[in-house]
């Protein structure tokens, strides 16, 4: 694939494609929100598996744009919901939805609550954080007795949507992306073994077959990954190189997830869930 892409890049340099507008550095709430329902469903499924809680607050750790906030405030109506995120752009939007008592800037790797919460709810954030063998025990350690840590992480590393993102980056820009991208999400057995030593553990995976609008001008899988998985690649590139990267990635995605006129596109997406209730 590297040779094929290198030849295409040489040819493209003679007549570059129309540049794609530069993506903002940081998170883009509007882009992320385009697939609101698809991103929210795993959060609802995780919420449904949270066991009985002690008294105390609920922390939405890595709350992003606050997509799960309204559901959390309904599900845990008698509790204060606190939003924590490292992105000012996302946190500004989360603060406006009325679901949170307050929102605060915080990094998952170092965040500590002022009071031990009853629940730390972490939806699609720990996949960005290394060292789960130490991060998860640290998070359970700040819970109230009998409290719960509930997390969901995309487990899509080997799927074409993610594998092609890495391959295209390494082939087009080997000087910048020759080092393999770190994989932070481990297998189910790792989480089952780790969390079983901390309390009552519940670990499972689910592959969501996501229905997408195939009539979009941009392939919907490209739009979906641009909001999240492609960020580290796009943020490292100039406007011209972003356009080259997205053009080639789009071609590869079209082949991996072909569209048929008049029909929906079905995009399988695997996610890993882990819940642990610590002793009272």
Automatic annotation (TrEMBL):
Domain of life: Bacteria
CDD domains xref list: AdoMet_MTases
Classification via SUPFAM superfamilies: S-adenosyl-L-methionine-dependent methyltransferases (SSF53335)
Cross-referenced Pfam families: Methyltransf_25
Gene Ontology terms for molecular function: trans-aconitate 2-methyltransferase activity
Keyword Methyltransferase listed: yes
GO biological process per UniProt: methylation
Keywords of the record: Methyltransferase, Transferase
Region (Disordered): 1-24
Record's keyword annotation contains Calcium: no
EC number(s) given by UniProt: 2.1.1.144
The Methyltransferase domain, residue ranges: 58-147
Listed Basic residues bias regions: 1-17
Stored InterPro entries: Methyltransf_25, SAM-dependent_MTases_sf, Trans_acon_MeTrfase_C
Protein name, as recorded: Trans-aconitate 2-methyltransferase
Gene it is expressed from: tam
């Amino acid at each position: 694939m590297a040779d094929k892409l290198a030849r295409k890049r040489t040819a493209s340099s003679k007549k570059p494609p129309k540049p794609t507008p530069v993506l903002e550095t940081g998170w883009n709430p509007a882009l992320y929100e385009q697939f609101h329902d698809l991103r929210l469903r795993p959060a609802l499924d995780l919420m449904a598996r949270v066991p009985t809680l002690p008294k105390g607050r609920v922390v939405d750790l890595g709350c992003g744009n606050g997509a799960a906030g309204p559901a959390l405030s309904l599900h845990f109506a008698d509790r204060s919901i606190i939003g924590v995120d490292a992105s000012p752009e996302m946190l500004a939007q989360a603060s406006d939805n009325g679901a949170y008592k307050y929102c605060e800037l915080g990094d998952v790797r170092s965040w500590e609550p002022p009071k031990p919460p009853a629940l730390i709810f972490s939806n699609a954030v720990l996949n960005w954080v290394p060292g789960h063998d130490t991060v998860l025990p640290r998070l359970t350690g700040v819970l109230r007795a009998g409290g719960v840590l509930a997390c969901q992480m995309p487990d899509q590393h080997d799927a074409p949507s993610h594998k092609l993102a890495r391959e295209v980056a390494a082939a087009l820009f080997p000087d910048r992306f020759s080092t393999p991208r770190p994989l932070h999400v481990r297998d189910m057995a790792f989480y089952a073994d780790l969390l079983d030593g901390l309390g009552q553990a519940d670990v499972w995976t689910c592959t969501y077959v996501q229905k997408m609008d195939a009539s979009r001008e941009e392939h919907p899988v490209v739009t979906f990954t641009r909001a999240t998985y492609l960020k580290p690649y796009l943020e490292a590139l100039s406007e011209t190189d972003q356009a080259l990267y997205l053009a080639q990635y789009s071609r590869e995605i079209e082949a991996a997830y072909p569209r048929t006129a008049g029909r929906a596109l079905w995009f399988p997406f695997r996610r890993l869930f882990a819940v642990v209730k610590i002793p009272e």
